[in-house]
Amino acid sequence: MKLHKKFTAGLLACVSLSQFWSGAAGADAPAGSPVDAAVVKVTPKVVAWRRDIHQHPELSNREVRTSKLVADHLRSLGIEVTTGVAHTGVVGILRGGQPGRVVALRADMDALPVTEQTDVPFASKVRGKFNGQDVGVMHACGHDAHTAMLMGAAEVLAGMRKDLHGTVKFIFQPAEEGPPTGERGGAALMVEEGVLGAPVQPSAIFGIHVWPGEPGTISYRPRGQMAAADSLTIVVKGVQTHGAQPWHGVDPVIVSAQIMTALQVIPSRQLNITSAPAVVTIGSIHGGVRGNIVPDQVEMKGTIRTFEPEMREDFLKRIRRTAEMVAQSSGATAEVTVEPYAPVTYNDPQLTNQLLPSLRRAAGDDKVRDMLPVMGSEDFSHYTRVVPGLYVFLGINKEGVPTGQAAENHSPQFYVNEDALPVGVRALTFVALDYLNEPRS
Ligand SMILES: [Zn+2]
Ligand SMILES: [Zn+2]
Description:
Keywords: Hydrolase, Signal. This is Amidohydrolase. Residues 1-27 form the signal peptide. By secondary structure, this protein is of the alpha+beta class. It has two domains: 12-226 and 344-437, 3-Layer(aba) Sandwich (Aminopeptidase), CATH 3.40.630; 228-342, Alpha-Beta Plaits (2-Layer Sandwich). The chain contains ten helices and 18 strands. It has helices spanning 12-22, 34-55, 64-76, 143-158, 187-192, 252-270, 309-329, 349-363, 381-384, 421-437; strands at 80-85, 89-95, 98-108, 127-130, 133-136, 165-173, 204-211, 218-220, 223-226, 228-237, 241-242, 279-287, 293-294, 297-306, 333-342, 345-347, 368-370, 389-395. The strands form five sheets. It has an eight-stranded mixed sheet with strand order 1-2-6-3-7-18-8-17. Helix 1 (12-22) runs antiparallel to helix 2. It is elongated, with a radius of gyration of 24 Å. The two termini are 35 Å apart.
C-alpha cells in the first residue's frame, strides 16, 4: 500500500491466539470444523514465519531470502512452484481432487527503506541500499504478515486438496511498493509475465492488507476501494531577469503559485465530488538559486488520486488546460506530464457480495465492516484490471488502541498485532474454498 506519505511478544501470544479467534468464528464455522482445526495447527508457524520475515526484511525486487522461504514451503506441501516471476516472485498451483474453477490468492513480500523504531524482540536491524542511499530496512507496511498468512492458508488448503473443487493459484509478489529507479517490477510485471494466464487461469483474485484498525476486523468497500494514482510533473518556463525589475522578464515562480492555486479549484468547483473523491497535491516545487534573480524555470511534482476512469480522464484534461492557460496568461509556458502509477483497486460488486459470508465466517459477523474509500493506491489493481477481484483490510492494532492513535503503515513504529493473523488465514482459506464450491452456472 502506498500513501506516498510494540509489541513484546513471547510464546504467550500463541497461547492467547486460539481463544481470540475461536470465539470469533461465526455461526457457520463452529470451533472444531476441519478448517478451524487446521488453522489452529498452522497458527504458531504463521507467527514464526512472520517474525522470521520481519527480522530479515528485503527491499523491492530483492526478496531473495523471502521467496526461497515461500518456495521451499510450497514445495514441501506438494504444490507446483514457479520461481523468478517478475524477478523474485513465486507462483504456486494447488490442483484439487475435484474439477472446478481457478481462484488466485495474492500476498506481497517486499519491505521498505524505513529504520525500525519498535521494541519487538524480532525488530529489524537490517540496512540496505535504496536508489544509492544507505537505508534501514523494515516491514513497515505489514507485507511480512501478508506473506506468512498466505503460507499458512496454502498449508491449510493443501491439507484438504482431495476434496478441493478446482485449483488455487498462490501469487507471492515482489515490489508492491514500487521497484527501485531504473527497474521494473511488481504486479504489473507479474501480469505481463502471464501470472494470470496458463497453465491455469484464475477467474477471481483475492488479497488482504493489514492496517491500523481494530484487531481482527475486516473492512471492505464494493467498487473503488483504493484510489488510482498518477504522478504529475509541471515545468513552467519563463524569462530570467533581475528580481528588482520583474517586468523585464516572465516570472515562472509567481505563475507556478497561480497554477498551484488554480489546480485546487478543479476538484472544489469543476468535478462532481459527490460521485467519487478526487485529490491533486503538489508535493515538490523547485526553481531559482537566489532571492534577487527571477529564474527561467520552475518544476513542480505532484500526485493525482481518483476513483472513476471517466472522472480521471476529465481531471487530467482540466489539469493540463488549467496549467497551460494560467501560464499563457502571463506569457509563460507550462509542460504537463502525467505518468500513470496504479489504476483504481476495484472490488467487483458481485464477487464482494458473494464472498461477504466467507469474510464473516473468518472474522465474526460483527467484525466485517464497510469502509470509506482509501486515497492510497495499491498495485493489486493491476490484477483487478484483468480478473474480478476483492481486496480487504485486516485490522492489526494493539488491543485498546484507537485507530487514529496507532502508527500508520510506513511508520517506523508500525505494529502488527499477531492475534489478528489467524483471521487473515481463515479469510484467505474460506474465500478460496467458498469461491470454488460456489455452484457454477
Ligand atoms: Zn506500503
Ligand atoms: Zn502495503
